[in-house]
Design a protein that fits this description.
CATH topology of the largest domain: Molybdenum Cofactor Biosythetic Enzyme, Chain A
Low-confidence stretches: 1-6, 273-282
Number of domains: 4
CATH architecture of the largest domain: 3-Layer(aba) Sandwich
Strand content: 25-35%
Distance between the termini: 35 Å
CATH superfamily of the largest domain: MoaB/Mog-like domain
Largest sheet: 7 strands, mixed
Radius of gyration: 31 Å
Length: 426
Amino acid sequence: MPERRDTMISVDDALRSILDRLHPVGEEIVSIADALDRRLAADYASRRAQPAMDVSSMDGYAVRAADLAVVPARLNCVASVPAGSGLSPTIPPGACARIFTGAAMPPGTDTVVIQENTEVDATGRIIVTEPIAAQGQWVRRAGLDFDDGDMLLRLGTTLGPAEIGLAAAMNHPWLRVYRRPRVAILATGDEIALPGDPLSAISLPSSNSFQLMAMVRRAGGEPVHCGIVPDDPDQVRRRVFQAAATADLVVSSGGASVGDHDHIQRLFGGPPDEGCPTSGQGTARTERHFWKIAMRPGKPLLFGTLADTPMLGLPGNPVSCFVCGLIFMTPAIRRLTGATTDAIEKESDDRSVLARVTHKLEANDHRQDYLRARLQRDSEGGWEVHAFEKQDSSMMSVLAKSNGLIVRPPHAAATKSGEFVSVIKL
């Protein structure tokens, strides 16, 4: 029988439903040494000016600009000021101080002459051979970078190397960040075995669990591998609720379709009535928010709540699992780590490009398509993309060769070679 279109929710509506129901999981304080890729849970102001006083930006000599009205000029070197030293004595008119990069400017000086523009005469006096461009050359003024109290790191900022370096320069050794969500990963099915275990001809290595764990880490979560659950309804229920008791998000693969052994969706009361396709009350302590999405691959995706823990039931086919993980699980984890919906949408936009297709694409039906494809630069520096001929949702080798997903909206018209399509960069 043909599938009923009204039983499926759109990709955009599904993602909005997920993000609207999720909230940051909590906060913790971490060392800046452990803060990479964490999201700030507070605003941070600087505890000092940078630099705290006028310093030299070059190796050379600290001088008075007024002493260099005529060059060459001869000056007595009366002090040496390395970086990190205490304040030097005041430098009198007609004198200079040897100075090094980062050292504080001695009182009485206002300019630095670089070492290359000086000579030393037989008496040890410094000869300045080149005129200065202006008073204050090669001097970093106090507060050049920022002042004490400047608000430089805002709540929600993702901490990359530059932000961590800035926090250190602001004199913050500890930062309050959103906690990494614990994401419980379960694979279901009697045919599934761990990679490396003895396999029969009808067995399959559990690839979904490990690709999902990698995606969780990349999204900023902490994956918890909860093993393989056999096709037994009692074991499925027990193992899933055990995972939910200590996780911030449960993600399963397999068992979310309509077969007799699809026990994940039966946790939520089984297939919903035709008249209520995207919501429904399941068994005790479970609630289904939606089931089935108008997308390919990945239609049998379920989102619900187990007690107080959200759960994504992803398809069992490995490519479907990956695509749904990318489109739904990754944004969900971003939300749990403190990202706003606007920030998540911007991340999605930043990951998408327009590219010319290298061959014709047929008109699309009512399901949003994600075609595995190869994305590359053309001779003019733009993007071009080639969809792989075989798009079967079981083919991991094709997915591994892909560095993009061509997005074909519902009811998209046929696309000729050379026309533009939207591509998600992998």
